[in-house]
Amino acid sequence: MPTSAELMERAVKVIPGGVNSPVRAFQSVGLTPRFIDHADGPYVWDVEGNRYLDYVGSWGPMILGHNDPVVREAVQKACEKGLSFGAATELEVIIAEFICETVPHVEMVRMVNSGTEAVMSALRLARGFTGRDKVIKFAGNYHGHSDCMLVEAGSGVMTAGVPGSAGVPAGCAQDTLTAAYNDLNSVRALFEGNPGQVAAVIVEPVAANMGVVLPAPGFLEGLRALCDENGALLVFDEVICGFRLAYGGAAERFGITPDLVTYGKIIGGGMPVGAFGGRADIMGQMAPAGPVYQAGTLSGNPIAMTAGLAQLRALHDQPERYERLEAAGARLFGGIAALLEKHGAPCTINHVGSIGSVFFTPDAVTDYASAKKSDTDAFARYFRYMLEHGFSLAPSQFEAMFISCAHDDAALDETLSAIDAFLQG
Ligand code: HOZ
Predict the structure, then answer these.
(1) Domain residues for 362?
(2) Of the candidates 260, 288, 317, which is a domain's last residue?
(3) pLDDT cut 90: percent of the chain above it
(4) Among residues 282, 317, 352, which one ends one of the domains?
(5) Which atom of ligand 1 is nearest to the CA of 154?
(6) Which residues are paired to 234 by β-bridges?
(7) Alpha-carbon span 233 to 259, nearest angstrom
(8) In this structure, what is the dihedral angle of CA atoms 260, 92, 304, 310, given to the nearest 10 degrees?
(9) For residue 270, which of 54, 16, 22 has the smallest C-alpha distance?
(10) Which tens digits make up the pLDDT trace of 16-43?
(11) Which active-site residues does the annotation give?
C-alpha cells in the first residue's frame, strides 16, 4: 500500500491540487493529507494503518457512525438488483413519502445529487415562483459552489482566504446581495434598497461553514418576518443541520417554518444525495409539473436512495439517538469550554447539539467578520497536534466538528484529555 505522501505525489499530477474537493488538501494546516483506507464506527484508518478518532464524519453524513451495519446491509442487498435505471422506481416514492410524512414543512421534495445542486435548484425555483431575480445570502455562509453562491462564501472559499471565485460572471454575482449574519438591519437595508426585487433569503439556520455560528435570539424569526413583509421566500439551507440538530433539523429545533429547505449529507447516508423541498404550491412549479427546469441522470439513484432511507429511518424510528447526540455534544463541547477556561486559552467555542467549533480568537464569534479574526496558524498547530495524537479534525478553522452516535463517552473523554494536553503546551 503506497503512503499518503506517495499517493499525493501521484494525485497532483492527475487531479487539480491532488484532491476532488479543496479543503481535504490540508493546505491551510500545512500537511500532506492523510489518504483514508477504511472506516468503522467513530474511527477512520489511513493508508499507513494509523487509526484516528474521526470528527469529520465525511463532513456530516456519517451521523450513525462509519460503516453502520443497517445502512451497509441495505446497500449491499440493493446492489443485487442493479445500480441505476434512469427510470422512476418505487423506492423514490417511498423515500419522498417518508420525508413528507415525517418533516412537517416539507409537502413535496425533489431528489438531486449534492447540496450544491439542491441550493442551485431551490434558488431557481424561488426566482421562477416569485418572478424576481435577486437573492440575499449571508457572508460566511456556504451554499455549495454554484456561481451565484460563491460570493463571500464560507467553507473552502473562506479557508483559502479569498472573497469568492474566479470564473463567476459579474452579471451573476450582481443579483446576489450579501448581508451580515445575525444582523437583521443589514437584511432590512437590502430589502429597502431592492424593493420588489428579492426572490429569496437563503440562510444556514445554524452557520457551520465559517466554523459553527449560532443564530442570535430573534434572528431567524426576524428573517421570517422580513420575508413575509417583502414577499420573498425564506430558504433554510439545512445541508448540515438537516436531520442532525433534530430530525426536523434547525426548523424543528428553533420552531421556524421556511418556505423551502435544502438537504444533503445525512439524507444520503454516505452516498451522493441532495434534495430540496417545501411548500407544495412552490414545488409544484418544478418541471415537468411546472415551468422551472431541473434534471439529473442519477437523481433518485436506487442505491443512494437505499442508503438515505435506511439512515433516515434509523434516525426517525430511534429518537433516543438525538438524546445521545445532545448528551455527547454537551459532554465534549462543554468539556472543551471548561478546558479553555482552565488554561486561559485565547480561544472561544461555539456549539449546538452534535456540532461545534473551537475558534482561535478570544472574542465572541457571531458572524463572518468575527470568525475571520481567528488565528489560523494557531488552529493549524492545534490540528497537527490532534492528528499526531490520533484525532481527525476538519483541516480548516472554518469548518465544524461532527459527533456521531458511535462516539461513546470514553472516546469523548480521550478527546478532552488530548485537548487538555495540547493546551498545557
Ligand atoms: N463542503 C465541505 C465542507 N463544508 C468541504 C469538503 C472538502 O473540500 O473536502
Answers:
(1) 4-67+319-424
(2) 317
(3) 94
(4) 317
(5) 4
(6) 201
(7) 6
(8) 90
(9) 54
(10) 999 999 999 999 999 999 999 999 999 9
(11) 142, 237, 265
